Amino acid sequence: MNSKRGDAGVVALIAGLTAAIVGIFLNVKISASEPTCLYHAEAQVVRQDTSILPISENGEENYGVSNANQLAADPKVPAGPFGRFDDNGNQINEYYENLSMFTFHHDNLALAEEEKNKTISVNLLGLNSNKWKIVGQFCESLRRDKVGCPDNLDQNNTDVKIDGFKKSCEVHIKYGWVVAPKNNDTEKCYFDTDSCKPKNPQISFSGNNRVRVEWENPASCLNLTQLKDKIQIDIKNTSNDIICSKNVDVSNNDTGTDCKLGRDIIRNTQRPEELQNGEYTTLVRVANESGSCISPDATNKANYIVVPPPTDIPPTNTPIPEKCERVGQYCSDDYTEDCTTEDSKPGKKQCHKEGRCNDIGDLTKCGWDDQRSSCGACIPNEGENDPPPDPTGLCQTIIGTGKNRVLLIPYNFPSSDEFATYTTGVIDNLRKTNLGDLYNEFTFVAYNKFFPVWNGQYGCNNDTNFSQDKVVKCDDVEAIRKTFADCNINSAGLVIAKLEGKYSFAAAAQVASIGYKYTVSAPHELGHAIARLGDEYSFKQSTTEQSGKPNCSSASSCPWSGECIAVCGYTNWKRPSQKSPMNLNANWSREFNNPSLNAWRLALNGGGGRLMNALQRATSNNNYNQSLYLKLRQNQRGELSLENMQIKNAYPIDLEAGLTKDYFSIKMIDSEANVLHSGQFSSKNTVYSEPNPPRQVLREMIELHLPYFDNLASVEIYNPDGQKKLDIDLDEFDLPTPTPRENLCGNGVCDSTLGENQNSCAVDCRPQNDYRNNYKELSSDINQDNRVNILDCSICLQQYKKKSSGLSCDIINDSKIDVLDYTTCLNNLGKSVEHAPEESLDDDPTL
Ligand SMILES: [Zn+2]
Q1: Of 361, 368, 457, 454, whose CA–CA distance to 415 is shortest?
Q2: Do 220 and 285 have their domain in common?
Q3: What per-residue confidence (pLDDT) applies to 12?
Q4: 525: CA distance to ligand 1 center in Å?
């Protein structure tokens, strides 16, 4: 028990009083030689809320205090009656009016030397024991001196006697008894009913460790008297200790109060001065004036949160939390803001902020700590100033800037919208392999013609071939190669056929096809078409042929470092690894073995000399976007005849090199017998009809798109034995030269040697179309959970500034992870994406 209430006022009021009487505590022997003392003691009877009990509430005569000596002299009449103030022996009656309080004050008390430091007890007399019981004692010094109170006072002592007061000078104390109403209080308690419970208690916190409590008075509570009855407020902490308490009058004009820790401490069981993190409960009740009758408690709770110090910084490699879970939580956020570049172009800048959660919610609630937050430079938006995409452009670059252009050809798709999903599936599946840096050697192009525009002039020659088998039999190589000439394709074409229940199939070099739900087998089929890999699963038959496949060995000793495992297609051939994309089902994986990777590298880097890049070749040829088209017929004996020859406004298709059998070689010669261009082409197509062994099928019709030279004089074609099979003298033909394309811009091919660039032809030279947007969206779902969220973009942060291929966040495919990838991911935040459905390989034995 402790209170400083009122003591300042008491001291002030007694200051002018000078008369002296004998004090109640001490037997004083006045002597001129004795030094005089200040002595001040206040005796009180208080209720548990520390309010001083009104004398009328006690209702007894002879109510007051006497010390041991006085009690011995008169056990019934107190020497210090309550309600009085004795100042220097001059009693002032009723000064305290109705309060159970007696104060003895003396400025010049003479205290005999032998009395000093002796102890004495004080008794309470006249307490109405029918109404009140003593529940405790208290004594506190009102000055710093802290002299006079008993040592080790038992605050729970219920005796009428307080023992151990010290006789001394400079005593300034308050002491007394705490009383509570007796249980057998005969007064009826009208408040002990739910109708008297205060309504809607609210608890909140403010500075200076104040707890604000508001409530509504119970209008239905009969007998409740304003400005007489009380509202009792208690604040409890999580340990259920009362840490602040207060009583206020019931008043409909004032239904709220602050309880300040360390100050409002009427019923406190704990006395903290500071609010701590945690949940606090307020209890609000109605009580009568004496506190002997109370209503049930109305309660409510609230959390108090102390903002943590700024040293609580999460490690940088921790994933960013997706939300602010509590106010004050340390948070960091990486986000992108719109901005304007120095030359006034719209752009985006990436910002990193750290701070504290201002509220519960997403990371927009994260505050900004100047010391730790900043934004990067404003980067102009990609394609912001480009013209809109040209939907009529035949070739739409999806992604990539590599020199190996791969054409994705729709079959039976109605529109680019749907086709885009599957082009993305193909590219993603290729990227998921271990091609690594080689992935960046690709440029993926979508062919922009759709059913029913399809008229047999591109892709597969007709659809009757699809009806028989489970495989997509798109083996009209010549038709597909025509589309290559449209789009300057030098690497391969992949037909994606929207046909239910169809698997994949590769027909000959450079041309592959898959059922649209089998984009997962795109690496396998392109492995055939580009790297000329063999199947590593078993055809269940042997062969007398030598392999010739980079990943299959027919040799007696293993030709590559590492192991040779039985069966590579043919049962007498061997493969380099147990599992491979070129294998099936249980032996399928995304990792090409080393011989396969070497073959990919040779093909894509041109190291094998097989393919030349038309754009590279164009440095010595102004007509690179025109081609000499030859249509040859081959009979079963390998004789060639010319069916058609034209100069076309089409891109030439590379000849091959390094073929050792089933080929023709070709020379393009000027009038001075200089070879302008040479190469090989196959006399047979390798037709894969999986899971059967590939077959060599004679090319009865061969269509070549050769480069065109103004000074070309003749074309000579030889068989492998060096026999001339065809000699075409251009002088004998009257070839109409087509009008050069006035404007190549818009065909989807960036004709850089003709001056097309991002400025002169943004449509062709800066990929920006449905396919690309779709690709970016799907690629932003890095963890493939069909939703682009911060988990995806945080992967980008982990890879940020890394330079390598095969990084999952390289959304814009430039072999490095930078702000453009990250902002692409952020731009797609919240989007639901649908990845191309893929049938399980295990269920489908055919690749
Ligand atoms: Zn295959």
Answers
A1: 454
A2: yes
A3: 30
A4: 6
User: How many Å lie between the centroid of ligand 1 and the Cα of residue 551?
Assistant: 12
- Surrounding ion ligand 1 within 5 Å at CB are 535, 690
From the CA of 691, how far away is ligand 1's center (Å)?
Answer: 7
Q: Return the closest-CA partner of residue 527 out of 406, 648, 614.
A: 406
pLDDT given for residue 815 in this prediction: 63
What are the tokens at 508?
């000959």
- What is the structure's pLDDT at 95? 67
613 CA → ligand 1 middle, Å: 26
- Provide the residue type at 242 as one letter: I
Span from the CA of 534 to the centroid of ligand 1 (angstroms): 7
Residues 202 and 102 in one domain: no
Share of the chain above pLDDT 90, in %: 22
279: pLDDT strictly greater than 60: yes
Tokens of 765: 């030279």
Q: Sorting pLDDT into bands at 50, 70 and 90, what band is 766?
A: low
Neighbours of 500 (CB within 10 A): 8
Q: Which of 181, 212, 230 marks a domain boundary?
A: 181
Q: What local confidence, expressed as pLDDT, does residue 144 receive? A: 72
Distance CA 493, CA 446 (A): 10
Which 3-state string (H, E, C) describes 164-199? EEECCCCEEEEEEEEEEECCCCCCCCCCCCHHHCCE
Per-residue confidence band for 45, with pLDDT thresholds at 50, 70 and 90: very high
The rounded Å distance from CA 396 to ligand 1 centre is 28
Low-confidence winner among 37-46, 232-241, 270-279 (lowest mean pLDDT) = 270-279
pLDDT given for residue 665 in this prediction: 95
Question: What spacing in Å lies between the alpha carbon of 504 and ligand 1's midpoint?
Answer: 8
Residue 468 lies in a domain: no
- The boundaries of the domain holding residue 111 are 7-181
Domain annotation covers residue 530: no
**What distance in Å separates the CA atoms of residue 770 and residue 229, rounded to the nearest whole number?**
76
Over 50: is that where the pLDDT of 614 sits? no
Taking the centre of ligand 1 as the mean of its atom positions, its distance from the CA of residue 701, in whole angstroms, is 24
Q: Is the pLDDT of residue 149 over 80?
A: yes
Task: State both tokens at 302.
Answer: 């609230």
Contact in structure between 363 and 333 (CB atoms under 8 Å): yes
8 A C-beta contact, residue 158 and residue 207:
no
Q: Kindly give the distance from the C-alpha atom of residue 524 to the centroid of ligand 1, in angstroms, as a whole number.
A: 6
Residues 80 and 209 occupy one common structural domain? no
What DSSP string describes 245-284?
EEEEE--TT--EEEEETTT-BSS-SS--SS--SEEEEEEE
Most confident stretch, 32-46, 232-246, 346-360: 232-246
Q: What is the pLDDT of residue 639?
A: 92
793 found inside a domain:
yes
- How confident is the model at residue 641, as a pLDDT? 92
Q: Domain check: are 162 and 14 in the same one?
A: yes
Number of domains forming the structure of the chain? 5
Give distance in angstroms: CA of 354 to centre of ligand 1: 53
pLDDT for the residue numbered 469? 60
- Per-residue pLDDT for 117 more than 50? yes
Tokens of 826: 């952020």
Indicate if 818 and 771 belong to the same structural domain: yes
Q: How confident is the model at residue 460 (pLDDT cuts 50, 70, 90)?
A: low
